[in-house]
Amino acid sequence: MASTVRTKARPTIHEFDLIRALHRRHGRRTPSVIQGIGDDAAVITPRAGQWMVLTTDLLTEGVHFDLRTATMADIGFRAAAANLSDIAAMGGTPQHLLVALAIPRTGTSRHVHQLYRGMMAACRPHHVGLIGGDTSASSGGWFLSVTLTGSVPPRKALFRGGARIGDFLYVTGTVGDALAGLRLLNEPPPRAKHHLRTAALSARHRQFLIGRHLRPTARVAEGQWLSTHRFATSAIDISDGLSGDLRHICEESHVGADLDLGALPLSPACRAYAASRTLDPVDLALTGGEDYELLFTVSPHQRSRLERTALKRGFSLTCIGEIHPLRFGIQAMPSHGRRRRLANTSYEHFA
Question: Burial, 82: exposed, middle or buried (Cβ in 10 Å; 0-12, 13-18, 19+)?
C-alpha cells in the first residue's frame, strides 16, 4: 500500500496541502519507521525476534456509522479502536497505522482532519504512529479502511483455536453497553406520552452507554498480559456479539461450551436501559457487538493465579462458562430455567 496520501478527482481538497498537514500533525517518527508519509511506500524495521501481527477493517457510511449520530472524530476513534482490539485479541503490541479514505462530494478538509484526530486519539495512548495511506473521491458516502501492524513474542500469540475441554471461559469488562448506546442514539426524540418511560434512564447512564458505543476501549494491556503470562489458551475480541464470537472460538477449537447467562457482567447503565425499555439485558449482551471486550479461555490450573494477578493489576474479569466436548454443542444456562442451545444472534454481514 502506498504511504503517500493522494487525492484523486477531489478538487475541493488540495492534495499536497493535505499530505503535508497529515504528516505534520500525525506522522511521528520513531526508530522503527525508516520512511513514513511522503513516499511511494512506508519502510519500517520489524522488531527483532518478534512475530508481526497485521489487521485491517473497512467501515462504510450507512452500515458501520451514521453521520447523524456520530461526529467525524467519533468515527475515526471507533475505526482505530476496532483494529487496536484485533491486535489486543492476539496478545500483541500495536505499532503502525495506515488509512485509506474515500471522500464524498460533501466532504471537506475539516472533516478529514477531524476523522484523523479521532483515530490518533485512540492510537496515541499505545504509541501508534501514522505511516501512510491513500485517499480518493467517492460517488457515494464515506468509506474508511484502517490497517494496523503490531508485534508479539514468538509462540505467544493468542489464537481462537486453543481452547481445551475443561477450560474456563472469561470476559473482560462489561458486555451489551455498546448496543444499548447505539439504540439510544437511534431513538426518536421522546414525545410527551413516552416521557415517563424515557425519563427512567438517568443522564449519567445515558452518557455512559453512548460513550461506550462512540469511544470504546481496546483492551490492549489485558491482551498483552494474557499473552505474556500464558494465561489464555484462546482469545477473541467481541466485535460482532458474544453469541457469535463464542461460536468462533468453539468452531476453531473443535469444542463445545456451556455459558452461564446469570454470570454475564452487565453494567448498571445497561441494566437500567433494559429496564426502562422493557428488554432483557442478557439479550443485549449476547447480540451486541462492538463492546471490544476480550473473550478468552483459561486452563483450570491457571485459574486462581489469573484471578489473583488480575486483582493486583486492576483488570476486570468475569468467569462466564466452561468448555465442553464438541458433542455438547454451545448451550446456555439462564438464571432461572433449563439449559438450552445458544442461538447465534450476533451481527453478520450479508445475512
Answer: buried
Which is more confidently placed, 322 or 21?
A: 322
The full set of domains in the chain, from first to last, is 15-152 (3.30.1330.10), 160-341 (3.90.650.10)
Q: DSSP labels for 114-144?
A: HHHHHHHHHHGGGT-EEEEEEEEE-SSS-EE
For the record, the C-alpha cell of 59 comes out as 467501515
Which residues, at least 6 apart from 160, have a Cβ–Cβ distance to it below 8 Å? Answer: 234, 235, 236, 248, 249, 252, 253
**Calpha distance 165→316 (Å, rounded):** 24
Give the Cβ contact number of residue 102 at 10 Å.
21
d(CA 154, CA 149): 16
Which sign, positive or negative, has the C-alpha torsion 201, 288, 259, 302?
negative
pLDDT attached to residue 11: 46
Q: How far is CA 79 from the centre of its chain?
A: 8
pTM: 0.89
- Taking only the tens place, the pLDDT of each residue in 66-97 is 999 999 999 999 999 999 999 999 999 999 99
- DSSP states of 273-310: HHHHTT--HHHHHHH------EEEEE-GGGHHHHHHHH
Q: Is the pLDDT of residue 104 over 90?
A: yes
Average pLDDT value over all residues in the chain: 90
Q: Could you tell me if 241 and 171 are in contact, meaning their C-beta atoms sit under 8 angstroms apart?
A: no
